[in-house]
Design brief:
The chain has one domain: Leucine Aminopeptidase, subunit E, domain 1 (3-Layer(aba) Sandwich). The protein contains five helices and six strands, in the order E-E-H-H-E-E-H-E-H-E-H. It has a six-stranded mixed β-sheet, with helices on both faces. The protein binds adenosine-5'-diphosphate. The site of adenosine-5'-diphosphate (ADP) has 21 residues, from helix 1.
Length: 163
């Protein structure tokens, strides 16, 4: 099942939230900053042990002071012109986060709009990739509940249309 929510992903009370991290996994702005602030300094301590994360891949940590159980950190592509493997990398972020969730018996997971902030991915294309990748995964694993957390109005409208 897919849910659409407008708001702050740090409030999600299910099993796992996905962080749109940078490849150092050492924190940043946007949703990454919000997640680290809400989780507390222990999240950064655990992230320091992970040795970063390549674009399109995902790593799991505890969630500390957050109301969920896990944070899945994935690194979205920095958008340049769309011909540098950005669509494939963005798709991999969603697919690899979902695979990792399944491995940890996650039943409910929330995604932000990966790469559509500072990383500059065009929102409509990013939303299409996100929704298609999640739908494909759910057709194989229908028990999982996926929530898309849209922060800005434009993303929220785009997801409303697609869902
Ligand atoms: P990226 O570097 O992957 O572009 P950003 O954090 O800059 O990551 O932006 C990704 C998306 O997260 C943007 O659409 C932004 O509006 C959204 N966002 C920012 N803060 C939050 C939050 N607290 N909860 C959910 N989404 C958020």
């Amino acid at each position: 099942m897919i849910h659409l929510i407008q708001g702050d992903i740090t409030k999600f009370e299910g099993d796992a939230i996905v962080n749109a991290a940078n490849s150092s996994l050492l924190g940043g702005g946007g949703v990454d900053g919000a997640i680290h602030r809400a989780a507390g300094p222990e999240l950064l301590q655990e992230c320091r042990t992970l040795g970063g994360c390549p674009t399109g891949e995902a790593k799991l940590t505890g969630a500390y002071k957050l109301p969920c159980k896990y944070v899945i950190h994935t690194v979205g592509p920095i958008y340049r012109d769309g011909t540098r493997g950005e669509p494939e990398a963005l798709k991999n972020c969603y697919a690899n986060s979902l695979k990792l969730a399944l491995k940890h018996e996650v039943k409910s997971i929330a995604f932000p709009n990966i790469s559509t902030g500072v990383y500059g991915y065009p929102k409509e294309e990013a939303a299409q990739i996100a929704v298609q990748t999640v739908k494909d995964f759910l057709s194989e694993h229908p028990g999982l509940e996926v929530s898309f957390y849209c922060f800005d109005d434009e993303n929220y409208r785009l997801y409303q249309q697609l869902l």
